[in-house]
Design brief:
- Helix content is 54%, strand content 15%.
- It contains 21 helices and ten strands.
- A ten-stranded antiparallel β-sheet has the order 1-6-5-4-3-7-8-9-2-10, sandwiched between helices.
- Helix 10 packs antiparallel against helix 11 and helix 19 (455-489) packs antiparallel against helix 21 (520-534).
- The longest helix is centred in the C-terminal third of the chain and has 35 residues, at 455-489.
Length: 537
């Protein structure tokens, strides 16, 4: 793999000083195409009503217009499913076999060539510095083609009465394909020639008279315009009105969560990356929280059935998620051991990979079944029904703000009461129980965040921090047990190196577990104090 770093400058002064024919022969066409899509200088948008031939006719009033080059090029914009790079002001563009990490706005870019051609890429498929950037921005998400773009360009030169080239115009037609939708963009990239500034002003004035307006962004930015990708990386943030009927507000929240589950199903079935299952499970947990916590506005005859179905669905995916977490943490496990013990972990992860393959196939069949389709169709119908016509519940029409006030107050009081009971010697069952309560309460805060001040964001952050702590503690406890079970189950098939490596790993996990457990009381004290000071209904 090779990479090189470049900084985009105005290409016109560098590349258009000579005759265009000589430029085309001598200049690297690959670099020229890249500069054309990255440059934000002298880019003009052609109105839909205006044909290229009419523009050429208008320019012919003062110049002889000659076509010197026609070409078609393909490139693609790669990103994660939820457009994490674009959200971080980055783009990953592929032209032929080369990738370019581009800073949106400045246009500076870094080149990288992965070691092999594949449909999905991950951060470790690239060399630094692209590798480091992708690891930070994309994390475990797969990178794959999100926008397929065809660029057709016609390069023309404008010659004066003496036959000298005084201006260059690139007519660019971009066809952007995304999720079956086609968007077409027509542009002109002008390239002034040094010493002919008066001719440049004439061309720009002529463009203005024809309704051709200047853009302030590059062609690649236009391809990634908000109306193409904005909806793909919106976070779960329900926007409620204080006087909205409670049943309508809850129904809207559940509809948003259902959309999230449906959107992630395709990626889950294709096994693009582990985050599709994770995001599906988060939406499912939030849905179960709503069904459990706001039952006063739900038609219980239907809600009870869906609660049972979704609980069963969550359990059916637990094992696959556990295996994903182990495999994703492989490098962390290896780094926790001395170099001499690390090779002994290989058989352990090979066995996990095989188990993961079998478990994924089971989950895939579940999500691709007629039974699952029927469940989700029934759920969608339930979410569109008029719940008031199904059961007469007194709180259905109550303002959502009054309902959320009561739910958050009662929920927070219960958690603080339980938190006071946690001690260093509390059982993991008791700790796990309050961890689940904290998670459900945080989901409730996220449901109703738009009804409260910024103080609720502080509460959500405090709960997230405590959840991470308790989640890590729970993982350390469970992982020690599962590794020990693995050692006993396949003891006859493991050599001494694997036994030593797994034993060392258990010891490392146990040290971290005991250290975190010894501080649990102080963590809860700090949490309770800060939460009590931050939020009051």
């Amino acid at each position: 793999m090779k990479f090189a770093k470049f900084n985009l400058v105005n290409p016109s002064s560098c590349f258009y000083l000579c005759h265009v024919n000589k430029l085309v022969k001598e200049m690297d066409a690959f670099s020229e195409n890249l500069l054309l899509i990255l440059s934000s200088n002298e880019i003009y948008r052609i109105p839909a009503r205006l044909s290229q031939s009419r523009i050429v006719t208008g320019l012919s009033d003062a110049y002889t217009v000659e076509r010197v080059l026609s070409a078609t090029h393909q490139f693609a914009i790669y990103d994660t499913f939820d457009w994490r790079l674009a959200a971080s002001r980055m783009l990953l563009v592929r032209m032929e076999k080369k990738f370019y990490q581009i800073e949106r706005g400045s246009g500076s870019y870094t080149e990288s060539v992965p070691g092999r051609n594949q449909h999905y890429y991950y951060w470790h498929d690239f060399d630094d510095p692209v590798c480091a950037m992708l690891k930070q921005k994309a994390d475990v998400r797969a990178l794959y083609s999100q926008l397929e773009i065809q660029m057709k360009r016609s390069t023309m030169r404008l010659c004066n009465a003496d036959g000298k080239t005084v201006h260059i115009c690139h007519f660019i037609r971009l066809t952007v394909a995304a999720d079956g939708d086609i968007k077409r963009i027509r542009l002109i990239k002008t390239a002034p020639v040094r010493g002919y500034s008066q001719d440049h002003r004439w061309v720009v004035t002529k463009f203005a008279a024809m309704g051709i307006r200047e853009e302030k962004v590059s062609p690649v930015e236009l391809c990634c315009h908000e109306n193409v990708i904005a909806a793909r990386f919106q976070k779960f943030k329900p926007m409620l009105k204080k006087n909205q009927a409670s049943w309508q507000a809850v129904q809207g929240i559940l509809q948003m969560l259902n959309e999230t589950m449906q959107v992630n199903r395709e990626g889950l079935l294709k096994d693009i990356d582990t985050e599709f299952l994770h995001d599906f499970r988060v939406a499912l947990r939030r849905t179960r929280t709503a069904l459990n916590q706001v039952k006063s506005v739900l038609p219980q005859s239907e809600a009870v059935r869906f609660k049972a179905e979704f609980k069963s669905l969550q359990r059916a995916t637990n094992r696959l998620r556990d295996l994903d977490v182990y495999l994703l943490n492989r490098s962390a496990y290896e780094e926790a051991l001395p170099m001499s013990l690390r090779p002994g972990l290989a058989p352990f992860f090979e066995e996990l990979s095989k188990s993961r393959h079998d478990e994924f196939e089971r989950v895939r069949q579940l999500f691709d079944s007629a039974e699952f389709d029927a469940l989700m169709e029934q759920w969608a119908v339930f979410l569109c029904a008029d719940w008031q016509q199904q059961e007469n519940l007194t709180l259905q029409n109550a303002p959502i703000k009054s309902l959320s006030d009561q739910l958050l107050k009662d929920g927070l009081d219960d958690i603080l009461t339980e938190a006071a009971k946690i001690a260093t010697d509390s059982s993991m069952k008791q700790i796990h129980k309050i961890r689940i309560r904290c998670k459900n309460f945080r989901y409730m805060c996220e449901f109703f965040h738009s009804l409260y001040s910024a103080d609720l964001k502080k509460v959500i952050a405090l709960f997230k921090e405590l959840q991470d702590y308790l989640g890590r503690l729970n993982d350390l406890s469970v992982q020690q047990k599962q590794i020990m079970e693995f050692m006993y189950t396949v003891q006859h098939a493991t050599d001494t190196r694997t036994t030593a490596a797994l034993g060392g790993l258990v010891a490392v996990l146990n040290r971290e577990f005991e250290s975190m457990r010894s501080h649990i009381r102080s963590r809860f004290d700090d949490f309770s104090r800060h939460v009590s000071n931050s939020f009051h209904v």
